Amino acid sequence: MRAIFFINFFFVLSIFFTFGADTLKIVFSKSIGSEKYLKYQQYIERAYKHIHSINAYGIKLEEAEELMKDADGLVLTGGPDVHPRLYHQEQGTSFCDIDEYRDSLEFTLLEIAFRKEIPIFAICRGLQILNVYLGGSLYPDIPTFLGKKVEHRCNDPKNQCIHTVKIPPNTQLHQWIGLDSIKVNSFHHQGIKKLADETKPSSLAVDGLVESFEWINPDKKPYIIAVQWHPERLEGDTISNILANRFIQMVIETRKNKKK
User: pLDDT digit string (tens) for 164-190?
Assistant: First the structure.
């Protein structure tokens, strides 16, 4: 783990000295409303201080194009459940706490991000709606449809459920962190049922639930990092820092290539 820390430290330095201190515009699908939402912005800003953070939640959908006009990156944050109608399982609505405006907003932001090849960091709900946007599906409620082998959400909302995820060796995630398994926190009751085409699992819980995914073709655009857990709540965690730094690298490299 110490070796990973030093690799990550020099990686951050290389970003700074290679690309300088240009300000990056990062759009967050929601970063207001409570301290837990503010953590996403703080998490990314710890990785790179020169960030212009923009909250998208609350805008009119027709304003999204202007908001994303010069965006360098998109962070899809956690939150309420994705409406089962979007993955053709409307009967699962009874299990859900739904924000239909949020669904529409994030589908709109994703359409723009894909068209403009803007890197995406998808966290918890963000991973779920990205998978649905790409044609995948979800379990409306993990204990009901998958079982209780792994506790993915604690009864006490103040606690972080911690469980192990396995990382396949042929993945970018494994390449980045050099580990076969890690411990992650967990705050969700929905999860991926069918993974979207053109993607593959980059980590799995012991009950088989996909905990992160990536493109099968690593050169496919836009760049994505999609994780089911909450790295923004693990301040000081080496793996969480690596994910944030890799996202910043993707953003900077994409911005540089667009200017060529």
Answer: 999 999 999 999 999 999 999 998 999
In the predicted structure, residue 260 carries a pLDDT above the cut 80 = no
Instruction: Let me know if 35 is a catalytic residue.
Output: no
What percent of the chain stands above pLDDT 70?
Answer: 90
| Distances from the Cα of 224 to the Cα of 30, 63, 178, 183, 217, angstroms | 18, 24, 19, 21, 11
What CATH number should be reported for the domain holding residue 100?
A: 3.40.50.880
> How far, in Å, are 53, 203, 204, 258 from residue 8 at the CA level?
23, 20, 24, 26
Q: How many domains does the chain fold into?
A: 1
Catalytic residue (choose from 124, 163, 188, 214): 124
Which range of residues forms the domain containing residue 84? 2-258
Whether residue 124 lies in the annotated active site: yes
